[in-house]
Amino acid sequence: MIVLNLKTKDCMQHLLLKPTFDSFSLIEGEITTYNTFHVNGYIHKNFFEEAPSKEYSSWGDLREFCFQIIRGKRTPLSFRFILSLPKESFRDFLTKQELSSFRPSDVQGLYLNFKYDGTCLQCITGISLNIFTMDKTLENIWDNYAEKFFLTQEIGFEHS
């Protein structure tokens, strides 16, 4: 787990106006403006005639909805979004990172936790596993991946 202090304006453009994070799953979110709005990204499959195979909506599916709540002359009082690499991408991620000691079913989530408190925007990385292990290799690789991702997207940050 690492804590990155993000350049708010740059990151907000990527988060709300660009497709930078669209492929990530939205686990949950909360936006506080004149009310507090909660978003649960879990897909209710019984709503659909043909149920989607994924468990959570993508950020791209809900980005515009969140943007409509946040936009305006005043900045939100706070928000938080928990994004995860989609489960269907775990196998590719583990393979590309040469993590043969982990199976996709071992991984619950590879998270980017965005938190804005009215003054600063942070991203806290994290992982969750379905197994017990003392091995921190996956956590360290995910932290490095997140840093590189922000750098390649030209989203400025400082370590907290």
Summary of the model, kept short:
The chain is about 30% helix and about 30% strand. It has 4 helices and 7 strands.
Summary tags:
alpha+beta; 7-stranded antiparallel sheet; 7 strands; globular; 160 residues; single chain
SSE map:
Elements: E1 3-6, H1 8-17, E2 25-32, E3 36-40, H2 59-70, E4 78-84, H3 90-96, E5 107-116, E6 121-129, H4 137-152, E7 157-159
Please provide a written account of the structure.
- 28% of the residues lie in helices and 29% in strands.
- The protein is built from 4 helices and 7 strands, in the order E-H-E-E-H-E-H-E-E-H-E.
- Strands 3-2-4-5-6-1-7 form a 7-stranded antiparallel beta sheet.
- It has helices spanning 8-17, 59-70, 90-96, 137-152; strands at residues 3-6, 25-32, 36-40, 78-84, 107-116, 121-129, 157-159.
- The chain is α+β, with helices and mostly antiparallel strands and 160 residues long.
**What are the low-pLDDT stretches, counting only 5+ consecutive residues below 50?**
none
The share of residues in extended strands comes to 25-35%
Class based on secondary structure composition and strand pairing: alpha+beta
What is the straight-line distance between the termini?
Answer: 11 Å
Order of helices and strands: EHEEHEHEEHE
Within the largest sheet, what's the order of strands?
Answer: 3-2-4-5-6-1-7
Helix content: 25-40%
Over all CA atoms, what is the radius of gyration? 16 Å
**Main β-sheet description:** 7 strands, antiparallel
Q: Using DSSP, what is the number of strands?
A: 7
Anisotropy-based shape: globular
Q: Number of DSSP helices?
A: 4
* Mean of pLDDT: 95
